Amino acid sequence: MPVIFHITTEPEWTAAKKAGHYETPSLKEEGYIHCCQEDQISDVLHRYFEGKKKLLKLSIDTSKLKSQLIYEWSPSNAATYPHIYGPINLDAVIETGKL
């Protein structure tokens, strides 16, 4: 069971549970939801979430995803990141943890 991670806020996760699936603005703007591998979490937090509060780490079981998962190269920091091309079905989120 490969696991990837997504950083979000408590209000966004609450809204997703009400909606029955999780989406982000990037899904509409870029076509996918940004995720990361465990060793990339601290860099993602530093680059995109500095000073933000009420953050959650979603642990996602990739074998349960209904949307397509693609690992793609990011030239901005020379690393490969997992991207989910569609909403995240809630049953794929196997754990949530506060950051």
- The coarse silhouette is globular
Q: End-to-end distance, in Å?
A: 23 Å
User: What is the gyration radius calculated from CA atoms?
Assistant: 13 Å
Strand order of the largest sheet: 1-4-8
Helix percent reads 10-25%
CATH superfamily membership? Protein of unknown function DUF952
Mean pLDDT over the residues: 96
Quickly give the structural class: alpha+beta
Count of extended strands: 8
Biggest beta sheet attributes: 3 strands, antiparallel
SS element count, helices: 3
Give the DSSP E fraction (strand runs of 2 or more residues): 35-45%
CATH architecture annotation: Alpha-Beta Barrel
CATH class bucket: Alpha Beta
Order of helices and strands: EHEHEHEEEEE
Give start-end ranges of low-pLDDT stretches. Answer: none
InterPro entries: DUF952
